[in-house]
Amino acid sequence: MDPAEFRQARSRGAFVYVVACRADNRFKIGFSRDPEDRWRTLHRRYFEFFDLERGALVAAARVADARRLERALLDAFAPYQSLAPLEVPLAAAGHTEWFRGALDEAVELAGEHARAHGLDRRRPGDWLREVYGARVDRVFGWSAALFDAVEYERENPCAGTGSAPAVRIERALRDALDAFGSLGFDVRGALRADVAAWYARDGGASA
User: Fold this and answer.
1) What's the CA gap between 185 and 17, in Å, rounded?
2) Taking a C-beta distance cutoff of 8 angstroms, is the pair 72, 44 a contact?
3) 138, HSE (Cβ side, Cα atoms, 13 Å)
4) Considering only Cβ atoms within 10 Å of each terminal Cβ, which end of the chain, N or C, has fewer?
C-alpha cells in the first residue's frame, strides 16, 4: 500500500468503494472524492451500519481512472442489483448502485482491476483508521468547541427552533466520538473534563 497515493487521491483524484452492509448481504459500489463524507450521507452512523473490515477502497489519482473502475464494477454486477436498505435516506441512496449476494466477487474484481491498472487498494476500515489517526491530536479542541456550541444553543434557543440546533450539534459530537471508538481509538482521555463527563453519562452510544 502506498499512503501517498491515497493522500493524492483525496486531494486531487477520486476513490471507488465497495462497502458491505453489516445487517445483511447487500453492498454498495460507488465513486467519491471523499468516501467518509459519502458514507455519512448514506447513514449518519456509517461506521456501524457498514462492515468496514470487508469491502474494498481503490484510490486513483485521476478521476477518469476511478470512473472506469466504477463502471466496470457496476456493469459486472448488474444482475445482482438490489433495492437500497430502508435505513438509507432516499435522496442519498444511489438507487442503481446497491447489490446483493456477490460481495466477495466484487471485492476480488476491484482488486484485479487495481493491480492491472497500477492503482492501490485497501479495506475501508484501514483507510478510515489512517484518517482518524491523523485527527486524534485535534480531538480536544474541536470536541470542546462543539460542546460549547451545544451549551450556547441550549441557553439561547432561537425562536421557532427550540432545542433542535443543540440536539443536532450534540448528535454530531456523539457520532464523531463513537466513530473514533469504533475504529479502535479511545479518545476519552483526550477530552476536556466537562466533555468527558457528558460523554461518560451518555455512555458513548447514540441516543
Assistant:
1) 23
2) no
3) 9
4) C
Three-state secondary structure of 26-46 = EEEEEEECCHHHHHHHHCCCH
**Distance in angstroms (rounded) separating the CA atoms of residues 28 and 33:** 16
Per the CB < 8 A criterion, the answer to whether 84 and 56 are in contact is no
- Give the C-alpha separation, 100 to 21, whole Å: 10
Residue 154: C-alpha distances to residues 17, 56, 204, 207 (Å): 39, 42, 21, 17
The strand pair at 98-100 and 26-32 is best described as antiparallel
Q: Report d(CA 61, CA 114) in Å as an integer.
A: 12
For the chain, the straight-line distance linking the first and the last C-alpha, in angstroms and rounded, comes to 37
Give the span between the Cα atoms of 23 and 151, in whole angstroms. 35
Contacts of 146 (CB under 8 A, 6+ apart): 169, 172, 173
**Element at 179 (helix H, strand E):** helix 164-182
Write out pLDDT tens, residues 91-111: 887 778 999 999 999 999 999
- Bridge pairing between strands 50-60 and 14-21: antiparallel
Q: What three-state secondary structure class fits 44?
A: coil
